[in-house]
Write a structure and sequence with these properties.
Elements: E1 3-14, H1 16-20, H2 24-38, E2 42-49, H3 53-67, E3 76-82, E4 88-95, E5 100-102, E6 114-116, E7 120-121, E8 127-128, E9 146-152, E10 158-165, H4 172-179, E11 187-190, E12 193-196, E13 199-205, H5 219-223, E14 228-229, E15 236-237, E16 253-255, E17 258-264, E18 275-276, H6 279-282, H7 291-294, H8 316-327, E19 333-338
Parallel strand pairs: 1-2, 10-13
Antiparallel strand pairs: 1-19, 2-4, 3-4, 5-9, 6-9, 7-8, 9-10, 11-12, 13-17, 14-17, 15-16, 18-19
Helix pairs in contact: 2-3
Length: 339
Amino acid sequence: MADIKLLHWNIQQFSNNKLNNANRDALINYIAHVVRRTDANIISLLELKNSAVNNILARLVPAINVVKGAAPPNQWRAIGINSQKNNEAYIVLYQLGNNFQTLTPAAGGALPINGLTNQTLTAAGAPGGTLRFNSSLTKSGGRKPFYAAFRTTDTNNNFTIVAYHTMFGFWSGVGVRNIGQLGQSRAIDDAGTTVDMDASLTCGDFNVDFDPAHPGDYNKLMNDVPSSYQTNQLTSLKTFTPPGGYTNPVDYRANAYDNIFYYERIAAPAVNQGNVMDLINDSTTGVGTMSAYAGAFVRGPIQAGHLIVNIPPQDFEDSWHIVRHAISDHLPVYVRADI
């Protein structure tokens, strides 16, 4: 049985410009320490620019190895793909030595089974048919979801990580409804042979508010897969704050956009097992354990950085400026699952 610790994070507009400005070392180190804090062994990253992916991984992976105390050689591998929208990639990082490995084709070959998909599940239980993921009114439409298939090395259980960054706008709900019909959440097609999934973790920035009392667009994800939501907390950060800021770090959150949905064949997992890392609280001196790493940032490259009173941040308002404008406007979500 594999102890899966999945971290999902939409790191807003992670481009070469963001990687290479004066806060480059602070940003990479901060992300690496989020990985250490969550003890993740699988990481799903969204909104990395295609042109920056190789450069980001070349700096991020060694930093994660250092903070997690992993000795050489490199303990991480990456699977990624061009999302074919907004010059953005899907990236899944996984750590070696955790009783799971990538699922490779039965016919042989070293390349793992993964890719963009818009297949639904047929009546026969195999992926097939076509789902619409045109979450924006353009010729090419919105992003398709990405899946990566794995197998545990001790129990031979199959599972997928499904990542989906919904396009923001009128068609967002269509994308969220269709991700609940995605075939690769329950089975994959390996050269004409159906391989059932024992579990699946669907993570993403869904850009549709989630309320478990009124699931709406999430109904299919919760019932057709079926999967259980892992958090109902707000995860995106507000764009503006009042003068003086807020006295509660949760007040800096705007919407419940990011989540992880967990499917398990043997029984539905419990809801609300996941965690949202409150970077506003954790980056504030005297409160959180990330304040030392937030203190490495400098004002110059940060949007409205002149409004930051103290670095390291002494209050939630200082932390909000650093986190939202220098790191991401989305908070990371993580969950632990035994597969």
